[in-house]
């Protein structure tokens, strides 16, 4: 490994970054997730944290642009130079630019964004090119499998030589795999077996159903119902307005006000909370009532007041023509939706204590239920 | 003097690509001649040796096929001899 002459480094513990221009090759959400993952390669091994900001000037400004992009080093079209970054310092220090003439991907095809971003962020932290061909900081691009990717040893030594070692391998306190959160008596655990029970939110997570109410959730397994404090599983989350599981990625999203979090089972993903504006909601939307992912269409339906939105998970964009009135496309499910989830191919929409079982493909209500019926009362 | 055999087998395109590569990634104040005007053979060979050494190639100062192969690889835009 090598460092830049004079060993420039960041003198503070939290570094901000902002992505000002995105590539059309990937959804914004995917770019955000990969950039977060690239920074996490470093925050896992050095006592530095990285925080994404969405306005103003960040320590590390990031953009995707072809050819001339505002500095004295215009890009050169496809292949050749893929990206570059400045060494740590004020103003343009740390800034990182990606050549948008490349085909940015999350796989072996084209140019893998995680590998190149992690390389450039090495420069942004003060690493120079390495002569070790197995190092991330080797100058030429070489694809490697990024599943479970960690910083190679040469780069880890290089960055720790500048910033020291982060003692625990994981920057966030993470529960042991498969801990069974102990039910904690909270100030006011909600009463499950009441006919007029109203859910805040509901979702499936890895084959089990979760029903959220105040600061608690009920976890419905094949054999039991457990009442657990939300904070004891996801420390950063107090209560939930809406939730949905994006099954093909195994990620669930929780919404509260104008922020949302990503989780994988009991593990909170780094880089959150993020603003819901990233889905394309206008600032007038201050709360999501309910959300549900419809696998057959690849859309996530978001319910807000008497309207609903349709978000294309593949393109990462809202479908045109939304919002639309709920009663327009979902007659019979009520005027608003407090909670929604999918179970064995049927959608369940709650409006107050009342719940309708809905057959999406046929566009019709099958049954009318009560929320509390799910809680083995 | 007659050009060396290796020299003759190098295409103009490869030669120019190599010069541009060295100018971008191996020019710092000590080799300003690379960045200022057309490269003299002496400068070119010296700088090429520097690049061949960095990539663990055979250090010949000559534009052989392995060296051209590395020059054509996609890569990071930061110089290998950072100032």
| Tertiary shape of chain B | globular
In total, the number of strands of chain A is 27
Which structural class fits the helix and strand makeup of chain B? mainly alpha
Largest interface: A-B, 26 and 15 residues
Radius of gyration of chain A: 23 Å
The level of helicity of chain B is 40-55%
Structural class based on helices, strands and sheet pairing of chain A:
mainly beta
Description:
The complex is a heterodimer of chains A (377) and B (83). Chain A is 13% helix and 32% strand. Chain A is mainly β and 377 residues long. In chain A, strands 3-2-4-6-5 form a five-stranded mixed sheet, with helices on one face. In chain A, strands 14, 15, 16, 17 and 18 form a five-stranded antiparallel sheet that branches. In chain A, strand 16 and strand 17 form a beta hairpin. The termini of chain A are far apart. Mean pLDDT of chain A is 90; it is low at 170-185. With 83 residues, chain B is mainly alpha-helical. Chain B has five helices and one strand; from the N terminus they run H-H-H-H-H-E. The model of chain B is unreliable at 1-8 and 29-38 (pLDDT under 50). Chain A binds chain B through residues 4-5, 73, 75, 79-85, 87, 99, 102, 111, 116, 119-120, 123, 128-129, 131, 133, 139-141, and chain B through 24-25, 54-56, 70, 73-78, 80, 82-83. Strand 5 (81-85) of chain A pairs parallel with strand 1 of chain B, so a sheet runs across the interface.
